[in-house]
Amino acid sequence: MYRSPERDRADDRRTDRGARTSDRRNRTEGHVIDCDGTRAVISAIMPADSSVSDDYWNVGSLITIASGPARTVGMLYRIEVPDAAWRKAAPNTVHIHVELVGEIREDEGGAARFAGGLSHYPHLGAVAHRIRNADLQAIFANTDPTAVALGRLSQSRDIEAMVSIDAMISRHFAVVGTTGVGKSTTVSLLIRKIVAARPDIGILLLDPHNEFASAFPDIAVTIDDSTLDLPFWLFRLDEFVEVLFRGRPADPEEVDILRDLIPEARLRFKGDMAGGPMRKPGRNNQVTADTPIPYRVADLLALIKERMGSLDAREHRTTLKSLASRIEAAVNDPRYRFMFAHKTITDNLAEVLAHIYRVPARGRPVTIFQLNGIPSEVVNAVVSVLCRVAFELSVWSRSKVKTLVLCEEAHRYIPADREAGFGPTRASIARIAKEGRKYGVSLGIITQRPSELDATILSQCNTIFAMRLGNDSDQDIIRRAITGASRSYINFLPSLANREAIAFGQGVNTPMRMIVETVDTAGVPGQAGDDPHQERTDAAGPVDMHGLLQAVREPVLAAADALGEPLESWSTLGVVGEQRPSLADAPTLQGSVDGPVDGAPPPGGREGLFTYDGPLRRNAEGGGRSGRTQQPNDAPQGARDLISRFRRADRD
Ligand SMILES: Nc1ncnc2c1ncn2[C@@H]1O[C@H](COP(=O)(O)OP(=O)(O)OP(=O)(O)O)[C@@H](O)[C@H]1O
Ligand SMILES: [Mg+2]
User: Fold this and answer.
1) Considering only Cβ atoms within 10 Å of each terminal Cβ, which end of the chain, N or C, has fewer?
2) Are strands 147-153 and 512-516 parallel, antiparallel or unpaired?
3) Distance of CA 53 to the CA centre of its chain
4) Which of 473, 503, 523 is at the close of a domain?
5) 471 C-alpha vs ligand 2 centroid, how far in Å?
6) Quick check: is 487 in a domain?
7) Ligand 1 proximity of 616 Cβ (cutoff 6 Å)
8) Which is more confidently placed, 35 or 55?
């Protein structure tokens, strides 16, 4: 219920005056009649004219109980008339049920200080009354240097709802709530606050509905299916297999052949390599099917052919043939161009990583990864690669590359049903959840169905913003996540307003019911239209069947057509902010992809581990890039070292 500050102050004055007159005291005070370790019941008398006092005993608000040297703070979760009858013209006795959440003491200077937990329980008959504003301030004061206001308390709107960014990020967080309550908008607000408080952290936002690009035109780089460059050789074997088999169960024989041949293809790669040349394979630097060293599909196919020709492979010939045609089908599928677009294979690992993980950030520390457009059967594999590499980068850069992975609709990738979803995606997200804190990789989970999300991942999220949740099983999950006193907050979950959240966990001093700050329309995800080139067309009017069918059959061509652009330039569609060079032009890509951003300040704390002017890789076929012939040795030691560590990760 909204209370203006003036009204609060007036009430405070009234409470103080009321303490002097027994008549007034009855209106505002109650007395403890029951107390166990965590809860208490207060009996109070509401006068016949209850209009003054009705605000005082209100479900959801905090009250204090005078108890020796401290004031015990209780959260009011239930109120009742014990004899279940309301007398209109006479005073009524009411019972007020509170959960004891902590206590307030005064320090030497007389300032109120709040601490969770109780050193002291209220005695029977102890006086309870509505909390003073100064005490409320003390409860929610947050002295953490990275604390930011995310909104205001529902109980008292002149008190800011403070969240400690560091504590929230380092131990992962979740935003849950039913559809339309404001999760994505809260996330966009959080992103702004995080970028301001921690410019050294890169944010990778997995955006399944392509709705965030318009919210951050100034601080984000948007990558969509036409601008994504995730070379196939960066995929681990299981991820590559997921792509080849398009999400269906793989043929184990074909996987075995790939496991044998991909390392051989990798060893055949003769191009320059960032991070220094490969050492000869030995005991400690075995090249495996997972080692992120480039290889050519042509080499892999040639190896398969060679094997077909060998005598002992007669019985495997069908398997080998099927594998070869499977690979060819993937390479020729225009929807998979984000993996296979490069005509020539070069080692652009440094560029790819620098672009996606924003090292250096150059004023745009956020990467919005638009997943709607990436073929649904391979989205899992792509998410797996992105999350896995985020973790590995932080490990091998010794925490210099810090990344926050924000996973919208997380239940899609890490479902509660262990049989569903893609194992490696689950594993890479779980790894961030379990070990990320040690290396500076964090996770933010956003979901409308917490009960459909892997419970172990949610249990690693130590700060939760729970918005309205109607479903019992979803509420149960959150109930289990709340520890200690404050479980009663769960009762409010079904009745929270839009934009209202209960925040609890490491990121906040004490659980709080809050209203998220108003985000202006431009900052609300999905509001301004995602494609800056395209005007929003009126939803009314006849459907253009021809265009619709074309879009269904050839989404990219249709989009280019709709913009009246020549088809060659499709690769720049949907790019917001920083323009990514067209994949078709990739072989002529010059140096770093991190071109300067107009007017953007130099990066805050994020170091330029990857970006240096060159060396420009010559491709394996000897054609490739022209230009400067700087040696790989010119790269800063950090970048070379990191890339080579990254490559050796699974061999050490
Ligand atoms: N903090 C806010 N400031 C301004 N408007 C808001 C805020 N939160 C929510 N809204 C409004 O509510 C609408 C729905 O919010 P939002 O898209 O964030 O919900 P959601 O929980 O992410 O929904 P879904 O589950 O469908 O993704 C927004 O379009 C916006 O108009
Ligand atoms: Mg949303």
Assistant:
1) C
2) antiparallel
3) 43
4) 523
5) 18
6) yes
7) no
8) 35
